[in-house]
Design a protein that fits this description.
By secondary structure, the protein is mainly alpha-helical. The chain has 14 helices and four strands. It starts with a helix and ends with a strand. It is found in: Cell membrane.
Length: 335
């Protein structure tokens, strides 16, 4: 048996080593890093088609367009660097300002009317009726074919001089404007009617949101004596506001990007590619004219980037404003 004196005489060499902090890391099994590397490689391989498409068809053209926005490029000669001249010319162009005015008018008129029609029809279709699936498909169908060239051609024939709309308004109201397409004061409203007719997509989203409204709230409000309008205003709209915000954001962006219908419906009227007296001169239509008809691809690129900045600014304003009118489950404007 070792005595305390012998331990003392042994000195520091005999003292046990100080224990450090325990190593809490579990030992990695062999080959773990290699397996993770193989899994990451497999993930990148599956993502490679999208990555290639994004780099070649989106990011690459955007970078080239940003460079061309500061050059004089006519599609035939090499780009010549001119700095901010395209932007200064753009802001001084009266037709460019006209295109901004027409586009804003189209967005302000078309988007609220389209969403109002979508919400109204969604409220009707949310009720249980016979043939409900048929009606939903019928109201959604215009959204599938509304953006096609054939529908735009038919729409142009309907609103042209002596077309069905022209004959109807002459016979019913005694108003003769010679067709909406040929009148610079009316051609834009034909495009607004066309976009309102395509309310199917936001209608489906509203229908999905209406299914999330608890029926108990309607029953309690009805017991308290609340009428249909008060139930809609105090229950349906607050709960539906996130869906409303999504539809407003999506449809506003789509309205800024209108091109095909405006170019086809208003094209050729009055000898102008964008409607008579620039009545349907939306922003993208004028961008097309500058880029492909006037071979001003540098100026068209500058216009495209201004449109991107404008849409980004509008999107930022909508996100900022949602705190005042969008109600989430965690509270007003919370996420």
């Amino acid at each position: 048996m070792t005595s305390p004196s012998s331990l003392k005489s042994a000195g520091p060499a005999a003292a046990p080593a100080a224990a450090g902090p325990p190593d809490r890391r579990a030992p990695r099994p062999p080959g773990l890093r290699a397996r993770r590397r193989r899994e990451n490689l497999a993930g990148y391989l599956f993502m490679s088609p999208w990555l290639c498409g994004f780099l070649l068809l989106t990011a690459g053209p955007m970078a080239v367009s940003l460079y061309l926005a500061f050059t004089d490029f006519n599609l035939f000669d090499s780009p010549k660097w001119i700095g901010l001249d395209n932007f200064s010319e753009m802001f001084g162009d009266a037709r460019w300002r006209k295109s901004v005015e027409v586009t804003l008018l189209y967005v302000v008129l078309g988007t609220p009317l389209k969403l109002a029609a979508a919400l109204g029809v969604a409220l009707l279709l949310a009720q249980k009726r016979r043939g409900q699936a048929f009606y939903r498909a019928a109201f959604y169908a215009p959204s599938l074919v509304g953006a096609s060239v054939s529908v735009a051609i038919v729409w142009k024939a309907i609103f042209s001089d002596d077309g069905p709309v022209d004959r109807a308004q002459r016979g019913l109201f005694g108003v003769d404007v010679g067709g909406w397409i040929g009148d610079p004061d009316w051609v834009l409203y034909s495009l607004v009617v066309l976009t309102v007719w395509q309310f199917g997509a936001p209608m489906v989203i509203f229908l999905a949101g209406l299914k999330q409204v608890p029926q108990e709230l309607y029953e309690a409000a009805e017991v308290d004596g609340a009428g249909p309008w008060r139930r809609f205003w105090n229950i349906t709209l607050p709960i539906l506001s996130p869906v409303m915000f999504f539809n407003v954001l999506l449809e506003t962006i789509h309205s800024f990007q209108i091109f095909a219908s405006a170019y086809i419906v208003g094209g050729g009227a009055g000898g102008n590619a964008c409607g008579p007296a620039d009545g349907s001169l939306v922003y993208t239509c004028y961008l097309y004219v500058q880029g492909f008809e006037n071979s001003r691809m540098g100026l068209a690129s500058a216009m495209a980037w201004m449109l991107l900045l404008a849409v980004g600014l509008v999107t930022a304003v909508l996100f900022w404003s949602q705190r005042r009118w969008v109600h989430y489950e965690g509270g007003v404007g919370s996420r």
